[in-house]
Amino acid sequence: MKKYISKSILVASVVLATACVDDITSLNVNPKAYQSGLVPEGPFFANASRNVVDEVTYGMSFKIWAQHFAETTYFTTSNYTLTDVGSGFWSSLYQSVLNDYKESKKILLENPSFYAGVDKNKLAQIEIMEVYTYSLLVTTFGDIPYSGALNPSLKSEALDPENLTPGYDDGEEVYSDLLNRLNSAIDNLDPAVDNGGDLGFGASDLLFGDDINLWIKFANSLKLRMGIIISDSNPSLAKSVVESINVADLISSNDEIAQLQYLATTPNTNPIWVGLIQSGREDYVASNTMMNIMEEPAVDDPRITEYYTVDNYGGYSGGTYGTSNAYVNFSKAGAKVTSPTWPGIIIDYTEVEFLLAEALAKGFSVGGTIAEHYENGIRASMDYWDVDESVADLYIADPDVAYATAIGGNDIQKIARQKYIAMFNRGFESWGDYRRFGYPVYNVPPNPGGPFPLRYTYPVSEQTSNGEKYTEAAAAIGGDDLNVKLFWDVN
Amino acid sequence: MRRILLIFSFVLVATNLLAQERTVTGKIIAANDGGPLPGVTVLLKGTANGTVSDINGGYKLSVPSSGGTLTFSFIGYETLEEDIGEQSEINVSLGEDVTSLSEVIITAQGIEKTKNELSYAAQSVSGEELSKARDNNLMNSLSGKVSGVQIQRNNSMGGSTNVIIRGFKSLTGNNQALFVIDGVPIDNTTHNAGGVNRGYSGVDYGNVGADINPDDIESTTILKGPAATALYGSRAANGVVMITTKKGRRNGIGVTINSGITVSTIDKSTMPKYQTQYGGGYGKYYGPTEDGYFDMADVDGDGTLDPIVPTYEDASVGGAFDPNLLVYQWNAFGDPTSPTYLQKTPWVAASSGPSDYFKTGYVYNNSVVIDGGSEKGQFKLGYTRTNENGVQPNSTLNKNYLNFSASYEVVKKLTATGAINFTQQDAVGRYATGYGGNNNLSSFREWWQVNVDINELRNAYDRTGQNITWNWSSGLPNKTGLIYWDNPYFASYKNFASDDRLRYLGYVKLDYKITDWLNIMGRVSLDSYNQLQEERTSVGSINYQPGEYLRRNISFSEYNYDLLATISKELSDDFKLTGALGSNVRRTSFSGISAVTNGGLTVPGIYALSNSLSMIEAPLESYSDKQVNGYFADAELGYQDYLFVTGAFRRDVSSTLPAGENAYNYFRVSSGFVFSKFIPQNAFFTYGKLRVNYGEVGNDAPFNSLADLYDKPTGFGSAPLFSMPGTKNNSSLKPERTKSYEIGTEMTFFDGRLSLDVNYFKSSTINQILPVTVSTATGYSSKYVNAGSVDNKGWEVTVGTNVVKSGDFKWDVNMNWTRIRNEVTELYGDVTNLPLGNFRAGGGSLNAPLGGVYGTIYGYDYVYTNGQKTVLPNGRYQRTTTASNPIGNINPDWTGGIQNTFSYKSIALSFLLDMKHGGDVYSADMYYGLATGLYAETVGTNELGNPIRNPISEGGGILKEGVQADGSPNTVRRAMDEYPMNGGTVNPTSAYVYDASYIKLRELLVSYSIPSRVIENWKAIRTLTFSVVGRNLWIIHKNLPYADPEDNLGAGNNQGYQVGSLPAVRNIGFNIKASF
User: Fold this and answer.
1) B555/A455 Cα distance (integer angstroms)
2) What distance in Å separates residue A328's CA from the closest CA in chain B?
């Protein structure tokens, strides 16, 4: 017995000793995790595209600064009491958008398909979306971390996990590099490639359903927007960019809008529905700024019933911008924009027409007249919001609206005013327009907590984790403050 | 341990028998378990006449016919004196002596060391000390009792407790002490949702180390530095709490029964003091003309507009109370059964406030232990049940502990031991924590109307079972929707979380004593549990009106395979060698799955995944599997009982490091020197020892932090989505290391009546494996690197004094004091700060800045002009433009405890003062509560004698201390008639950072044991003790208003933050313990 037990101990110790011999590092693999090499590029492209549309679709701070909405009890955004307001936008675009595009590109380059033309289209699609995303960052923050791939003067290494403290590049230089990249991408798009079914990203193309012609129109429309944005700061570059566009390659109807059709079930619903309806909160009402502008002409703007709900008194009213407002008293966001399936827009036909009108007003040669594009823009918007053509006719005939006699001291102001109305639900673009036009005149909060924001401040996380480069960047743009004008904002 | 001492005692005393005239006999038992005490010295006082008790605790002594006094003494127990008088039989029971229990200490791997031999800091607390306080979580009972240990408790029922020994060492990893029971490491993870520790709404499910039964603990040893813990491997770098459970007695059968009830109430000093002058609203802008305090509508149909309280406003910046003013309040709408339905009521402050939300809680505790044994073996079977009803509505926590252990000498020299602990615990309605969600405290402290009567809310819920809230959305009187807050009773009764955990902890062990100096032990142990967590959001709740159900299943297991040879050999008369040689294989596996309904619940009240309105998203599966193989050796050479030199070495091979580079070694050397040996014997200085040691501990990486992995979000319709992870992994990680040294001394004076133990230690944890927070412009928010180094150094002082020892009266004072200083000495690359977490409001964050302290609070600070705070033209303080200013430090300057114990015959009274000095806490509760006009300081009069809530145009407002930008004294008044008054963004973050110091009366205990003289007549009962226990009775001093500075949010590294803080709970317990 005793011997037997001694032997068992001996055996047990041998077993224990040998258990330690195998290479145990094979345990360090999670069988439920997706290792790189197993996933194709498409799902990354789709995810990034969805995320970037989410960011511009919701953006309540943009909608509030554009004075489409006023706030109820907590009016810190509308009176500009703002702390770390840009961190979500920044980290989402870098982390959830650009890094996924980058991975998509990496996978694609490492695993070329049989159809080189299709791969080329995909790379161009990624490129266009990256340009779009960087254009959002650079027009919001100013100098930003960016990659120096094409322009040797650009030095920082954004999206490089080996360099944990990326430097910031000059915003204007980034911008011109983006325009170059956009041109190349447009050239690389080919709707007639040899293919095995899909022309580009196929089912992962959530925006255009694999229609390369629509990609061409989207890219050119983006180029038009980017050209116009720098038309005050760099008119000559703007002119060459805008005039290089073939107008036929622009978005030319409401069927060609660059948009994401949201779905009825979470988590793929429109984020406005999530924030305003699903949350059950009562934070926003119509702003008196927008409401007054829409009600100013003799003929009330027919879109008012689409933009806003009726208030408790059966009419339409906006809360005073920059103060607290009783939710119960005012109109709220209308049924369409708060529907879970309402699409999120990147760029649409309405905007293109107003951009063309502005191009003409600035002396760029794009064909047509200012009045034509102005009226086309209004009609496109009316059509988008399902206003009867006859009703639209009446509105356009109103002397306050008709181009010749429209409200506004000059061409730009006339365009700005109607574009402002039409860009409802497009807070990001409206806020950008105001920084260029300064018109229509916004209301001023009675007790502002700070200046009108002309940019987003860099995220506080950059201060804490990239302090040195942050400090340099802040100095380079004239201070990391909300009221620092960006390079394209010279008015 | 008793047997070792027994031998000593025999040698000392057994020869002293002298012929006397009569004989006294008796039996000596231990007061704590009623078991016989062998080896107790029985002396006739003032003589050399004595004996020692035998194996059954019996003794027999000849005494003079005139009688005298007998003293009963035994190491580790209180000394007792009994008058002989005419008695011929004297039975006594000896209580444990806490101060001298450290005489023999059980160290790593169960190796016993005497006080002389110990060459590093270790401190013991007896099981009695821990269990008598009757806290359900053992860790809380350690608070204030041990130097070097910082316990941060939590006021939630069964909430998690942070146990940090000798400071925060790891920048982002685990800093919690390792818990080991009878040589078996047990898991102490906190399975909370990620945001709980950062103040997001959620539930604190507690740390699973709370599964230890406090009633089953014989003793606890705290090994503080890695030098003491090299033998437990990497995890012991944070210190070890070693628990030894009670063992069966050697002879006979005994039964011990314990029964107690604890009554709990909240400490009202940790709840807000509300103002009673102004009711709900945000200012004067309601009604059709937007200039009143009330909404106006013709509710009663008399053609005139009636005032309605803006119920949708969750603040008290509204109209001044006026009992003559009748208004429609929340209770006039939504519920036709309301006694005030469609009725106006006087506009007055509520007569019952949020403090009345809390009820009296009860904990029932019952346990029975049967133990017994013979020369060959012993067994113990114990069952403990605790039922807790918390102080919040609908909260219960039940625990069942079943323990069985047995050992038997199978054949000569071979002993088999087995133990199984089965713990089942289930909870309903653990308190919600954090901001919003179901945490009613975040409403009570931050968003509330002081006109709302909590009892009416209770009645409304009881009457209807519906969410009849005080916080109707706008639209009254026609529409009653919901806006921000549920009826608090609806939230607690309908939106409750529940959880259930089954845990098996056990081992089988064979000990083979090859020779008298060599023993081989083989052991296989298992710690395993399964937990189910379920969270409910009722249909109609504000959090998510369509309703939601979430479930998480967690499975954990850890196997340890140990083989250990221990040696204890007298090499010569002067030299003794003790040592251990062993191996350990540890395999830890975790898997979890969590799923949540999508889009709402189809049928209200059914909490099942199948009840999801839309298709549910794929459940989240979590997984980890890890193995560490360790080999170790430990040897100690002792010379003549006064000089000891020890060395230990360990090599670990871990599965989580890169193949081929996954082995790492560590070691310690230490020495103990009893220098009093060389000081002539004197009554003043009785004992002195010096300890010096140095140790290093290596550590491995978290599971799966080498290879890059993708995230997979729910697809967009039929299009699959993939995304990059937030953390960039690193395939070339190396093991991290903690190096530390320690110098300590231990001295006793005045015949042992004063003892002093002083330690100085320094530790550096270098080359840390951490996900360093990176600029998100890298595409990631963090990246795993080997970087960073944190130093901790500090002093630990323990003083024990026997102040009075006079006849039957005894007064002992034990004190401990700890001071730790921490510095982040290295970070990664150009990184100068490691953010640890952001606070939920006000721009604050917790950081580890290079050259600064781990746990530095950053935030916006004041801008000073000529040394004075600058006030802006809008009456607000100017804030720095950056939020990276150091404005606080969560680490205390020092912590300490003072225990006073008084005993007179069989009555004992003790109390423990627990103190923390310094250390800061950021209060989001104050940030909001001052902005919403809830607190007492938001009313009153200003220096002009006017009510501050008057408009500035009427002389109201406050004049904030400071200067204007030009340096002239501030003359701009800050309006107090509108949100955010003098809270929120009006002040920088630093205004809401408070000193978290406290002095607490932690424990108060009165116990009475029926004297053995009396009890022996009752035959069956051996001991009977009654006790009254008070716990957390009184916060004697604190600087944080309206809250408990100790209350934390879950366990983890993100401390120093309060939001929706739970009030402290006072406990008073009554306990009866009997042994048979």
Assistant:
1) 49
2) 5
Question: Of A50-64, A476-490, B54-68, B604-618, where does mean pLDDT reach its minimum?
Answer: B54-68
In chain B, residues with a C-beta closer than 8 Å to the C-beta of A278 are 544
Q: Do B130 and B229 belong together in one domain?
A: yes
Q: What is the ipTM of this complex?
A: 0.93
pLDDT per residue over B923-973, tens digit each?
A: 999 999 999 999 999 999 999 999 999 999 999 999 999 999 999 999 999
Structural domain for B969, as ranges: 936-978
| pLDDT tens string A258-285 | 999 999 998 999 999 999 988 888 899 9
Residues B181 and B115 reside in one and the same domain = yes
Both B128 and B236 in one domain: the answer is yes
Domain stop point among B94, B112, B139: B94
Asked if residue B182 and residue B47 are part of one domain, the reply reads no
- Cβ of A468 within 8 Å of Cβ of B830? The answer is yes
- Indicate whether B73 and B130 sit together in one domain: no
Provide the total of helices (H) and of strands (E) in chain B, helices listed first: 9, 62
Tens-place pLDDT, residues B103-133:
566 676 667 777 777 777 788 887 777 777 6
Provide CB contacts within 8 A for B520, sequence distance 6+.
Answer: A9, B511, B512, B514, B563, B564, B565, B566
pLDDT of residue B18: 41
**A37 Cβ contact partners less than 8 Å away, ≥ 6 residues apart:** none
CA-to-CA distance for A357 and A247, rounded, in angstroms? Answer: 13
* Cβ distance of B774 and A161 shorter than 8 Å: yes
Is position B49 within any domain?
yes
What are the helix (H) ranges across B453-568?
454-464, 488-494
Which pair of tokens denotes residue A455?
């940019």
Q: Cβ–Cβ of A324/B283 closer than 8 Å?
A: yes
Q: Do A164 and B774 touch (CB under 8 A)?
A: yes
Instruction: Enumerate residues 6+ apart whose C-beta is below 8 A from B542.
Output: A280, B467, B469, B471, B482, B483, B484, B485, B486
DSSP sequence for A333-398: B-TTTTSTTPPEEEE-HHHHHHHHHHHHHTT---SS-HHHHHHHHHHHHHHHTT--HHHHHHHHHS
What is the spatial distance between Cα A126 and Cα A222, in angstroms, rounded to a whole number? 14
Which of A28, A91, A481 minimises the CB distance to B703? Answer: A28
Cβ atoms of B854 and B834 within 8 Å: the answer is no
Q: Which positions in chain B touch A44 (Cβ < 8 Å)? A: 722-724
10 Å Cβ neighbour count for B15?
8
Searching chain A, which residue's CA lies closest to the CA of residue B710?
A34
Q: What is the CA radius of gyration of chain B?
A: 32
| A174 vs B: CB within 8 A | no
Residues B38 and B153 in one domain: no
The candidate with the shortest Cα–Cα distance to A206, out of A44, A22, A364, is A44
Query: Which residues neighbour B949 within 8 Å (Cβ) at sequence distance 6 or greater?
Result: B277, B278, B320, B933, B938, B939, B956, B976, B977
The owner of tokens 């002992």 is B812
Query: Where does a domain end: B228, B248, B268?
Result: B248
Task: Determine the Cα–Cα distance for residues B1034 and B268; give it in Å rounded to an integer.
Answer: 10
Cα–chain center distance at B831:
33
Assigned domain for B207 exists? yes
Domain total for chain B? 3
Is the Cβ pair A2, B833 closer than 8 Å? no
- Contact between B881 and A17 using a beta-carbon 8 Å cutoff: no
Q: Are residues B72 and B189 in the same domain?
A: no
Assess whether B122 and B49 both reside in one domain.
no
Torsion of CA B315, B320, B322, B325, to 10 degrees: -70
What is the DSSP secondary-structure string of B679-740? S---SSEEEEEEEEEEEEEEE-PPTT-SS-EEB-PPPBTTB---B--SEE--TT---EEEEE
Measured between alpha carbons, how far is A408 from A406 in angstroms, rounded to an integer?
A: 6
